[in-house]
Amino acid sequence: MAATSADYNQFVSETSFYNRMVLSHLLPANLWEPLPHFLQTWLRNYLAGNILYFISGFLWCFYIYYLKLNVYVPKDSIPTRKAMLLQIYMAMKAMPWYTLLPAVSEYMIEHGWTKCYSTLDHFNWFVCLLYIALYLVLVEFMIYWVHKELHDFNFLYKHLHATHHMYNKQNTLSPFAGLAFHPLDGILQAVPHVIALFIVPIHHITHLSLLFFEGIWTASIHDCIHGNIWPIMGAGYHTIHHTTYKHNYGHYTIWMDWMFGSLRVPLAEEDSFKEKAK
Ligand SMILES: [Zn+2]
Ligand SMILES: [Zn+2]
């Protein structure tokens, strides 16, 4: 799909606005204004990604390990500071690479290579929601298979995904593990969001919001708190993935694992600390 120059201008003025919104609040103008548009976009994603990672991680840890101590996580299962610092260190090493992906995808969006749109002409709620659902199903399907192949191919597992599976016990997993991946592993698991843009027409802001939600989601499935809300693949399921290595490859829901026979439901006794404490 070729972009008309009006579409291109519309996208670039929108993305320039986001760049300005983030960068002008965080950096002196002479540091970022001279940069080419692509690098500004990357820098905006990089800084926003870090802020999202630290705010969501710290708030979540503060809530579950301090404010609600012993409610969700027993005191002796709180990950050590060393484990969390190592997860932060790994996430920080990978962050410049992760954030290259949305910068590249924004470049493709601006040039009209995807089906992403930015206007609200002919907007229709029903069609819009249908496309969002389709987008999510596609992303879920692709993440399932990317994740499964990362386990099934020894080479990929050893060189990429093993880094994330260093954390294989309840008391080593924390919300900060959500982005503790080898950079290429993290990118591969996020690529479905970019591929989906070429298949499903979706509004640009919806796409950005879903990426934002992704940052929060990945922190939440590593907190080891089993919410048990069907059909959500919450942390209870993902903790099993980290301990058995061959179940629950899915991302948002249990459907793909159910369909492809790799689902393992957390046992009632694993349900929550609260239950155990009774
Ligand atoms: Zn895995
Ligand atoms: Zn994980």
Characterization of the model:
This protein is mainly alpha-helical and 278 residues long. It has one domain (5-277). It is 63% helix and 0% strand. It contains 12 helices and no strands. It has helices at residues 5-26, 29-32, 37-67, 81-98, 100-110, 125-152, 154-159, 183-199, 204-220, 235-244, 255-260, 273-277. Helix 1 packs across helix 3 (37-67), helix 4 packs across helix 8 and helix 6 packs antiparallel against helix 8 (183-199). It is globular and about 55 Å long. The relative contact order is 0.13. The structure holds zinc ion (2 copies). One zinc ion binds next to helix 10.
Order of helices and strands: HHHHHHHHHHHH
Instruction: Tell me, briefly, the overall form.
Output: globular
What's the pLDDT, averaged over the residues?
92
How many domains?
Answer: 1
Ligand catalogue: zinc ion
Helical residue percent band: 55-70%
Work out the number of β strands.
0
Give me the number of helical elements: 12
Strand content: under 5%
For the sheet with most strands, the description reads: none
Report, as a whole number of angstroms, the end-to-end distance: 60 Å
Radius of gyration (Å): 20 Å
Please identify the structural class as seen in this structure.
mainly alpha
Uncertain residue ranges: 272-278
Multimeric state of these chains?
single chain
